[in-house]
Write a structure and sequence with these properties.
Chain lengths: 453, 453
């Protein structure tokens, strides 16, 4: 027992402030066709206390006592040293992973879910609407609303709704209401269903439905909640990286070489990486790698443009890497990585050359997930396997170079609700899919006439 | 943040010895029709290093370094103070729960799974067979075998196999092989299927199949692994209670009033309660409550008898509370509590008046599970809801009496793989079932002529 597998923090060692990357990175403003969009324009969508965070350029923002109280339900999360994965790879690299899978919803998502629920309740809101891809966000928000006493309505991308019935049951158990998207409950949903009744749906469509239900509630007591992409979500998730830095210090690590996370909308990746990016901007030599699926290659093959975050064009334009807001990715199992865009903060950091995005095919990722399950023992979510596969690549590179690198990745969620994907992989039923250039070109036509960042 | 929700231990604070209740409690010996069964008789079933533990009356048994190394994959587990459940109940009781749901398999089962895998490997065994009810044990053993490099074959009770396909996928992901029981792979299975092709199966039948495959392997490199009932399983699980005692001390609790666990074969209950029972036998005033489902009321309505642990009568007779080894309980969702017998150590402690068993109906338990999900935030396994419902009863009693009691229960596993039961409960499709006296009488006829303890 000379070695410790897990590095814990006590509750009183948790960070008391979030790190706001917007203080150190100049992102282009939200836009309408007429120009920059002021905070007030968001009032029907988000409560104003969260909108203030969205526009804030304060570097450190206090975490309210009430939010701390909610976070301590399951935080701080342990940092693991992946001794057995290292051994299996025969790498001189020291691999650490931040275990965000131990939350009651099984992923990092509750970090911002309970925070948003708390701010909404403070603002007098009674009901939240949202969308969900793989179901992790929908269950996280149902969990959060249940704890704090808000109603919760979730639009779940149809392909995931059908593939993952247990996610719906999870939301129900916490008292949330879950419907398949596109649905007949909104104008946005009906319009899509009329054109394509068999659509697998997409995050963009589901977002439009959720926003529509929030802004059209005449009581004014409904708001929309978003699980990724926005600045305030990235902000809330920085507890991950801030804890990790303290834990690496406890483990005696003086320097981190590589920081890795999977990125769909960007939130778990931002949560781990932004505090390290702060160090990088202050001179530290760190390679920061967001990993996406090759079938939805937003960061690696999309341009940096102004685009809508939602399919129905209801919200302001945002500067980000995007495949176009009408893009519907093929139905791979990593549902949480099927978003057409990318967090504006993550996008700007990439644009500024501060990060090294990577796209991986799903077979390599599932293979990595199986190796991780059999060595470290925890079955990763399909999304998380992208971070693991990238970590394995870097660990093998360190082996070739004979270098003792320190690699940290975010174990964003467990795969216990996503085993059907593993089943198909083990049965040899999955294949890789390379998105053709012309599909990307075609999808980008919709934003041809938008302003350029 | 004046209050801590979770009490952690460091890895170096983990217990280094198991507590063996057999040192303090005289249990009747294993029997054959000819008399007491010596340790050697078990040689084809278990490796002799585990058989030695089964017969040991040493009070404290060292945990080998190699087992410690495996346990630290996820241990020590946190002890939670259930502030929000207390508040919802308005009780003056202080409620704590030991969170065993954070293991990679989602329950307490890996505590003995990795330990048995380690002892088998030490003994030169290459392959383990086992049975599983709800699937928690089968996935725990697959996990353990995967970490340590053993083959794993699991016979899963058919009713659960059909209701819980994801458990099978979990085993597969860790490399285990899972078949529905009764199967056509064994004589025991074939015999049952011939008589009743539509049987839902039972733990007793599945045990018989797993044992048959182990003892009939002519290479001598296969053994059977059991997830509950035996003395050595209870022994391995005492890390739960030993950690809990240290954590309660850290929380400033000088006295524990009530200790609660659900009991199917008895292992999670034994693991939490035996270290407290040691205190009780040394003068402490503690009420210790094992909780079972009313549909399988082994402890509350079964007699204390000699009976077989398995349906096919392949293993020696053991003194325990039992409903008869041919008893097949109705298919309630708490599959892990559907065993006809009870751990000999737990049984003897009850017989000696040291424990107060309780039987509960499933509607009360699911209701408790929903309340727990919405207050504490974690969705409990259906088995675990029995412990929660009993805790709520005791907390309400403390409220009526106006007493500040300290209640500790074992949160043995999460319910993320068992959401279909919650779905049926929420849809109003579940009913309670009272087992008729004549069914019990009928089932006990099979052991009429057995020796009496």
């Amino acid at each position: 027992m000379a070695r410790n597998r897990k590095i814990y923090l006590r509750e009183d060692e948790m960070p008391r402030q979030w790190y706001n990357l917007a203080a150190d990175l100049k992102t282009p403003p939200y836009m309408s066709p007429d120009g920059a969009v002021p905070p007030e324009a968001w009032a029907p969508v988000f409560p104003m206390n969260l909108v203030e965070q969205e526009y804030s350029t304060e570097r450190w923002i206090d975490i309210p006592e009430g939010v701390m109280e909610l976070l301590t339900r399951w935080r701080p999360s342990p940092l693991h040293r992946a001794y057995d994965l290292e051994e299996a790879l025969g790498t001189p690299a020291r691999i650490y992973y931040k275990n965000e899978s131990l939350s009651p919803a099984g992923s990092h998502k509750p970090n911002t879910a309970v925070t948003q629920a708390w701010y909404n309740k403070e603002f007098g809101i009674k009901r939240l609407t949202t969308e969900t891809g793989a179901g992790q966000w929908g269950s996280a928000l149902s969990f959060a609303c249940s704890l704090i006493g808000l109603e919760c309505k979730v639009f779940m991308v149809r392909i995931s709704f059908d593939q993952k019935p247990f996610r719906k049951l999870m939301m129900q158990t916490w008292g949330g209401i879950c419907v398949a998207s596109p649905s007949n409950e909104t104008q946005a949903g009906k319009a899509i269903l009329e054109k394509d009744p068999d659509t697998p749906g997409s995050l963009g469509i589901a977002i439009s439905e959720a926003i529509e239900q929030a802004v059209t509630d005449k009581s004014g007591q409904t708001r929309y909640s978003l699980g990724s992409v926005t600045n305030f979500v990235c902000l809330h998730q920085t507890v991950i990286g801030l804890e990790t830095k303290k834990q690496l210090e406890k483990a005696g690590e003086k320097k981190v070489d590589i920081v890795i996370g999977c990125a769909g909308g960007g939130s778990n990746f931002a949560g781990l990486s932004f505090p390290f990016l702060y160090d990088k901007m202050n001179g530290a030599d760190i390679d920061i790698i967001p990993v996406e699926p090759s079938s939805c290659p937003t960061m690696t093959r999309g341009p940096y443009v102004y685009d809508n975050g939602d399919t129905a064009e209801m919200v302001p334009l945002v500067a980000m890497y995007s495949l176009g807001h009408k893009f519907i990715p093929p139905p791979i199992h990593a549902g949480g990585l099927r978003y057409h865009g990318m967090s504006p903060l993550v996008s700007k950091a990439i644009k500024d050359g501060l990060m090294s995005p990577l796209a991986l095919h799903q077979l390599e990722c599932y293979k990595a997930g199986i190796l991780f399950s059999k060595t470290e023992g925890i079955i990763p979510a399909p999304e998380t396997t992208h971070a693991i596969a990238a970590t394995i690549r870097e660990a093998n590179k360190a082996k070739e170079e004979g270098k003792e690198k320190v690699i940290v990745f975010n174990f964003s969620g467990h795969g216990l609700m996503d085993l059907a994907g593993y089943d198909k992989y083990l049965a040899g039923e999955l294949t890789d899919y390379e998105l053709p250039d012309e599909v990307i070109r075609e999808n980008l036509k919709v934003i041809e006439n938008y302003p350029k960042p």
